[in-house]
Amino acid sequence: MATTGDPVSVAGVLLAAGGSRRLGSPKQLLTMHGVTLVERAARQLLDAGCSPVFVVVGADSAIVRDAVSMLPVECVENLHWERGMGTSIAAAIQWLNDVRFAHTSAVLIATCDMPTVTVEHLQSLLATSGLGAHRVASAYDSTNGPPERGPVRGIPAVLPRADWPALAALDGDQGARALLRDADTITVSLPNGQFDLDTPSDVAAWRTADGAAPR
After folding, report:
1. What are the residue ranges of helices labelled H in the chain?
2. Beta bridge partners of 111
3. How many other C-beta atoms are found inside a 10 Å radius of the C-beta of residue 79?
């Protein structure tokens, strides 16, 4: 535990270990304004005030590491990335349980394939969480659920240290959504947050909608 007077920080965790099977090439290396998506997302976490920032790598780990090598981030290797997102979250939390990070009050989990995320949105999540005192999720429309069910609660999201045991136990494709659905979770709206870059048609749609889209 942190001692009285220790600075409180929120760690940033960027999930960048996936194999991009549906896209057919590493989505982490798609570019926007000449910057890879993984570098862009890592910079957003840094600029929002997260410290430390971890990039979880798995598939194509060498080139993903190289893409963020100029940044003050640590790369965490997920040897079980093929089992799904849950293993990447668990790997990051296990790393954060090191005594070096005893002052870390919470974690802000993000991914690199959500082009509508901004630094300002991440800062709003952090401010709403009270620097990690409360769980805060992004809220956006569902891509495959009926509108009457309401917005989805998803990442980017801030999860306080009290949630870490549950996060460390995640496996497979199960992410943090079960926690984020809890009634105590606060939400911050993320316009068009349901849009991510999973397939070639997603990339084509983003290029059409925005001249600065990934290429």
Report:
1. 37-48, 61-67, 85-96, 119-129, 164-168, 177-180, 200-209
2. 15
3. 11
What count of other Cβ atoms lies within 10 Å of the Cβ of residue 154?
23
pTM, 2 dp: 0.90
Residue 190 falls in which region: left (phi positive, over 0), alpha (psi -120 to 50) or beta: beta
CA dist., res. 188 & res. 49, Å (int): 18
Q: Please name the amino acid found at residue 148.
A: E
Name the pairing type of β-strands 31-32 and 74-77: unpaired
Name the strand (E) or helix (H) holding 14. strand 9-16
Handedness of CA 13, 19, 23, 24 (dihedral sign): positive
Helix or strand run (H / E) with residue 214? none
Determine the Cα–Cα distance for residues 153 and 46; give it in Å rounded to an integer: 23
**Residue found under tokens 């901004």:** 118
User: Cβ of 136: how many Cβ atoms within 10 Å?
Assistant: 27
Q: Give pLDDT tens digits along the chain (215 positions).
A: 344 445 679 999 999 998 777 776 788 888 887 899 999 999 999 999 999 999 999 988 999 999 999 999 999 999 999 998 999 999 999 999 998 898 899 999 999 989 889 999 999 999 999 989 999 999 988 765 545 466 889 999 999 999 999 999 999 887 888 899 998 999 999 988 887 787 888 888 877 776 655 55
Q: Hey, what domains does the chain have and what are their CATH numbers? A: 9-203 (3.90.550.10)
- The closest of 33, 65, 16 to 215, measured between CA atoms, is 33
